[in-house]
Write a structure and sequence with these properties.
8-stranded mixed beta sheet, binds zinc ion, single chain, alpha/beta
Length: about 450
Amino acid sequence: MKIFSNRAWLPSGWRENVRVSLDQGVVAGIEDNATAGAADIRVDTLLPALSNLHSHSFQRAMAGMTEFRAAGQDSFWTWRTLMYRFLDHLTPDHMEAIAALVFMEMQEAGYASVGEFHYVHHQQGGHPYDDRAELSTRILAAAAQTGIGLTHLPVLYSYGGANKAELSGGQLRFGNSVEDFSELLGAVEAAMTAMPSDTRLGIAPHSLRATAPDDLAEVVSRHGNGPIHIHIAEQPREVSDIVDWLGERPVQWLLKHQDVKPNWCLIHATHMTQTETASLAKSGAVVGLCPITEANLGDGPFNGPAYLGAAGAFGLGSDSNIRISLTEELRTLEYSQRLRDLCRNVMVNGAGSVGKTLYLGAAAGGAQALNRKAGKLEIGCLGDLVAIDSTHPQLCALHGDQLFDGLCFAADDRVVSDVWSAGCHMVKDGRHIQRDRITANYCRAIRDLTNALNA
Ligand code: ZN
């Protein structure tokens, strides 16, 4: 397959009339100042596509259900209560239909791949399915339906809170000991043999509060060669719970007790001291920022200037999937910084384009976190590509690097025309090629689920 673009962003900068060849999912050739062939797919502006590094796809179905205030209660923890109630009714069919919609929406928003941080493993009440990997295989099936590049991240979730509190209620569907978790990973690996070759497997010890120091050490030593993702320091109460239990703040504790390297991805890392921020940047790990969800849940703003100043790696995730929009994710990150610091153009080192810093930083960090050779348009990289339409009214006044700024601040996802995931052309003219079928399945699943919730 050959793509001809009026312009493309290459590692060497903007180039005109760029012809890209894709072979077996990989970028096999790039020519600039080229002439289009008759069979080429024509697009306007071609960019490396981002990886969405953090998603819990099932939570998409709760979007809009938790935006009311119950008397005296309005916190992250009340949101979690509804999430647990939801889990009482969620079936494997629902899970697959919801994940397929979510992955499709991600591709239509311009993401080529996703890291699915997958923590619902068991039946209601906590009994494993006959196939331990039943729900993981539903995530794999959803990825196969949509063609999105998947890094599957089964979650180790053993405790209901800090200091080995027992699991209860909705949490029972998450629970695994390290032994059970190893068994689950074996079953997932077997199921993955049927998936495309760019599918990746990692692990996700859920958080310090849902694991324990000895379990964390064990699971990392057994299975820690690929991506390791963990939620950390999202909420002040989580920080104080960990200080009370382990005597140190979460990021401080993790950096001291684990060999945190570039294959680690710390999700949120919202509440950090300056010292934690600098040490985390130095580790080479990726911080997984989820700006829309963090704003929705009232988590707080990330310590962006210090982290970027220390050359820390970062990527973007849509986490709760309350809204899936790449452009909005980018600007919510920058706006959270502006609102806190009372100034403009925060997320850039020195002088330069904020949009370009955010977009290319998230492209590199997301690929690193998902263990994909992607995030740049270069020979030998996966064909994770997005085309945007610079003639769209939202962008047509902009040129060069301003296109990144337009994407971040002035546009919505309607400017995305095409997306390739590992060379598969899944979004054409702004529509996923399976949209009708995936949407119909989703609507059916939601009808069933809401009927059960309201019964
Ligand atoms: Zn999360």
